[in-house]
Structure prediction request, 162 residues.
Amino acid sequence: MKMTPKRYSFKLKNELSELKTLSQHLTHFSQVYGLSNTTLSEINICLDELFTNIVLHGYKDDLAHLIRFSIFLNNNSIILNVEDDGIPFNPFNKIDSELPADLNSAKIGGLGIHIVKELMDDIWYQRKRGKNRLTLKKINHARNYLYKRNKSSNIPSNYMKA
Prediction:
């Protein structure tokens, strides 16, 4: 049975105080469209990390900027787009931080992109018309319990892949 595609979009100011609003939007989307708790948690972790990085590192000025989010749900696939007008930043050009041997030697920061790569099923980056656009794909396991993670899906040719 095919499900009708669902869309949800919102914008946030480039302020860390918007993290609560981000979480509220994701919770609302999850409640309306029946995401599993695991899927919601993983999406929330990733978008929280990406939003925080954009706010803290994405702009060279102190002006107000809007960060755009869109969520597209079709069957068991969730596509998330994050778009900002910050400085160009392709997270896949960043060398992954070394994982700490144990928690005592762990430093704060530097693992966010690694976490996003691990939690999402596919990720693409594109810089177009002065904007960074990160597209993330997540499978909603509540809709497909037999899904096995596959990171070799077809990718649009104008996107860079993790």
